[in-house]
Specification:
With 471 residues, this protein is mainly α. The chain has a single domain (22-437), classed as Ammonium transporter AmtB like domains (Ammonium transporter fold). It contains 18 helices and no strands. The protein has helices at residues 24-52, 58-85, 116-135, 144-166, 182-200, 205-209, 216-235, 243-271, 276-290, 299-323, 325-328, 336-354, 357-363, 367-372, 384-417, 426-431, 433-437, 461-468. The termini are far apart. The relative contact order is 0.13. The chain crosses the membrane at residues 28-50, 57-79, 119-139, 146-168, 180-201, 213-233, 239-264, 276-294, 300-321, 333-355, 393-416. This is Ammonium transporter. InterPro entries: Ammonium/urea_transptr, Ammonium_transpt, Ammonium_transpt_CS, NH4_transpt_AmtB-like_dom, RhesusRHD. One of its GO terms (cellular component) is plasma membrane. Keywords: Ammonia transport, Membrane, Transmembrane, Transmembrane helix, Transport.
């Protein structure tokens, strides 16, 4: 179907579908990368969430992810994208105007060789997965009507500010090394999820004490979508099919495999068992940790980052969490704070240590932009002051993202609580999916149903005589 002429950018006629600025290779890769990131959410996190929770919460948990993906898209194209990436002189956020205006989507994206439509869709996939990751802290008790309001509000007032200040035109532009969202996506989702979990309250007491996953095999399926989908997550961040893209993808998988194996080894040494769920957690922390530096560090640095992401979040989750009254007071269902906030912060700091100056210059399109980023502390020989300054910016970015998300998430939860209850009522918490949605995940015999009695076949007398006759 052809587009109306008023949707074509100025100077582009109906027969000029491939203008000189368009790179078909970059355009194709960006659409593939966007699809891979989308698959991380739907079906990746839909499957993962629906499998990691208790059976009675499988439908609700999966549906929270699916709903968020849909409403995030409409919010993004109608106002949120321009708030996050509009070129407006503001320290925190851009103007809430639509991205689907005449003559915009098919124009050239700023400094990229593909249309604006690609950029809008790719950044939507990032925004959607951020709020879905946040949901992992709230599974098993949040009122679905409250969640319906929470998603667009949080996307509007929290996510867009983080994206604008670090990636857009905000006050931290060209200061924080955050290649693909260690701060903007993972630190923000971990902090916001933990904060929202505090305001929503804990799960039903029995659920909190006994919350076995309902399908381990499907957990691995969802985890597989996450791991392979991260090829698009970190591979799409340079917005071109160039050298940095290849390095970022390789580093992503190296760090992830290392982190998984370190987590697994710690489980085997301490608990004497190789936990599948533990391995998945180690996989996730590796993916998160490498994200802020995937395209600007060497592969050997990715191995070190994987070792640290497999051990430090393991310690905070498996040891510190159990000893800390603070962590015990908040019911973070899937430990999103540890897998995303801790791992994202760790990745941001390590990116400030290992980022190579030549890779920074390759990544950023102009020399002035590249010079704004100090070299990694390890590579600041003769420029120690610049390396230390960059570490200071990395810490400043983490403080800002943490404070903003904690404050704004609290305000959003308090506002919603004046309209509907944040937490389900006790009856729904006791029953689960059937009470909330009128549906159950699995139609299994034994859940209130009886096996039908088998019908006895009537055997004709002649057949009975043949069967009983002596040979």
């Amino acid at each position: 179907m052809s587009l109306p002429i008023n949707y074509l950018p100025e100077g582009l006629g109906p027969d000029e579908a491939s203008p000189d600025w368009l790179s078909k290779g970059d355009n194709a890769w960006q659409l593939i990368a966007t699809t891979l990131v989308g698959l991380q959410s739907v079906p990746g996190l839909v499957i993962l969430y629906g499998s990691m929770v208790k059976k009675k919460w499988a439908v609700n948990s999966a549906f929270m992810a699916l709903y968020a993906f849909a409403v995030a898209l409409l919010s993004w194209v109608l106002w949120a994208h321009q708030m996050a990436f509009g070129n407006y002189h503001s320290p925190l956020v851009g103007k809430p105007v639509p991205s689907i205006r005449d003559g915009v989507l098919l124009a050239q994206s700023d400094q990229h060789r593909f249309p604006v439509a690609d950029y809008v869709l790719f950044q939507f996939a990032f925004a959607a997965i951020t709020v879905i990751l946040l949901a992992g802290s709230l599974l098993g008790r949040m009122n679905f009507y409250a969640w319906m309001m929470f998603v667009p509000l949080w996307l509007t007032f929290s996510y867009t500010v983080g994206a604008f200040t670090i990636w857009g035109s905000g006050f931290l532009q060209y200061k924080i090394i955050d290649y693909a969202g260690g701060y903007v996506i993972h630190l923000s989702s971990g902090v916001a999820g933990f904060t929202a979990a505090y305001w929503v309250g804990p799960r039903h007491s029995h659920d909190r004490q006994h919350f076995p996953p309902n399908n381990i095999i499907q957990i691995l399926g969802g985890a597989g979508f996450l791991w392979l989908g991260w090829t698009g997550f970190n591979g799409g961040a340079p917005f071109s099919a160039g050298l940095i893209t290849s390095l970022a993808i390789l580093n992503t998988h190296i760090c992830t495999a290392t982190s998984l194996l370190v987590w697994l080894a710690l489980d085997m040494v301490v608990y004497k068992k190789s936990s599948v769920i533990g391995a998945v957690q180690g996989m996730i922390t590796g993916l998160v940790c490498i994200t802020p530096g995937a395209g600007v560090v060497d592969p050997w640095a990715a191995v070190i980052m994987g070792m640290m992401s497999g051990s430090i979040p393991w310690y905070t989750m498996m040891v510190l969490h159990r000893k800390s009254a603070f962590f015990q007071s908040v019911d973070d269902t899937l430990a999103v704070f540890h897998t995303h906030a801790v791992a994202g912060f760790l990745g941001g700091l390590l990116s400030g240590v290992f980022a190579r100056p030549n890779l920074l210059r390759m990544l950023y399109s102009t020399q002035s932009q590249a010079d704004d980023y100090g070299p990694g502390l390890l590579h600041s020989k003769g420029q120690l002051h610049r390396g230390l300054r960059q570490m200071g910016y990395q810490i400043l970015g983490a403080i800002f993202i943490t404070a903003w998300n904690a404050a704004v998430t609290s305000i959003i939860c308090l506002v919603i609580s004046r309209i509907v209850n944040l937490r389900m009522d006790e009856e729904a918490l006791e029953v689960g999916d059937d009470a909330v949605h009128g549906e159950e995940a699995y139609a299994l015999w034994g859940d209130g149903e009886r096996m039908p009695k088998p019908r006895r076949l009537r055997i004709p007398p002649i057949c009975r005589r043949l069967v009983s006759a002596p040979s």
